[in-house]
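Look over this today:
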Amino acid sequence: MQRAKVTIQARLKAKREERKVFDDLMRRWSSCVRFVYNRLLEGKTRDELKKTLQSKFKLNSRYVDDAILQAQTIITLSKKLGFNPKKVIFGGRELFEKLSKKHLSEEQRTKLKEKWREKRQGNLYSRGDKSKNGNLNLRIIQDNGKWCLRVNVGNRKWVLLEIVTSHKKWNLFESYLAQGCPYSVRIKKRNRKYYCYITFEEELPSIEIGFKNGAIGIDLNAFPSHMAWAEVEKDGNLKSCGEIFTPHLWDGRKQKRDYFAWQYAYQVIDVALEKGKGIVLEKLKIRNKGTRGDFSGGKSRRIRHNFAYKKLKERIICLARRYGIAIRQVSPSYTSVIGMLKYAPQKNLTKDIASAWVIARRGLGFSEKIPKNYKALIGSPKCEPRTEEKETNSRNSSSAEHQQRSLYNLWRVLRAVVLTALSPEKHVPRCFSPLKPLLVSGMWGESLKDTSPCYLGQGLLVGEIPPAGSISNLNWRNTNNPAPKCKNIHFG
């Protein structure tokens, strides 16, 4: 049985008398984390520290173990992200630098000190234990018909804090709570309010929708902001396609983008449930987000920096697992190039939908071959990958072989020949229909039955114009006309 972690956010209500005892517990635990952090950097071990921590900070054994785990996690994350663990500032570097300035007024300094103190001292964490039917230090119980958090403050004393939440997963958590399942609780104090984060494991259903009947390929794009999907049969042929527009993923605040990322992910899941096929995504890491002075334009850089690609992808994977939909991730190498050169001219598709078609085929295990007329256009067998002779007169033969393998990629050469050398506009066009004569008959730039020569980017041939209401509606990208909502195209 597969499991997924679910976190529920809630508010804690505490009386004035309970606040003093609870704040003191959070202060001692946060201080214990900082102490353990510095001792671990000095080379101390867990067994050496645990002997003195309980008496030094007046915490029980479980609180001490959780403090050690928290300190070890911070060190591990710092090293993973490439930071120096010795330069970590508890409470936040930004607040620390603001407090270091001398031109602050007394009122500003007081507010910053309060925020600094809450971030530095207002933390508490306790792991769940299956043998103890949940969580021993921070246990959720019912008191007079209300859900409360029973906090162990030491010396056989407990504090009850009322839980206030409207999370949609709370009813599910109640069912797991009745079964005695473990759950972890993390408490943070912000703006004199207590926030509680309850984490438990949800059992996921078995995968019922797989790749027996085909797949649905998803191509995520930052500009224009939309997702292209293509439904592919088990033999690799395209059956239907469409686009889901995502205009809210590159503007607005973080909370707004988080909300819409879930909404767009649900639309992808609805398509998969309707078609009854698994989802194929690209295993892509967006690294080149643009830097100032790269001549790409401020708007383009802003879109690439703000586009929540990873966030949207993680939500699609999460929802697919919850709904029992199989999901695969494939290599993104040349999916757009193959789509625009090989499949977009065949059915007058946009390059994004054609790329989604390639992604779906790759998820089903199909490989893409170069059309023979494209090979004739290049006109040299030396362009085949790894066909150059391995002998070299240089001393370092291995480096020469690696250079030859990396230079002579046929799809890269084909893209340069077709889209750069033969395009008068010198950029990727919207219409790829002029490539159809070249793809089918090998003809390029010639007159067809008293028609004018057609080059890439010029437009459709007279005989290639599809009827009204067909796939040509997908080519909506016009700066003067607004984009339609979602177009679903069916084939066959």
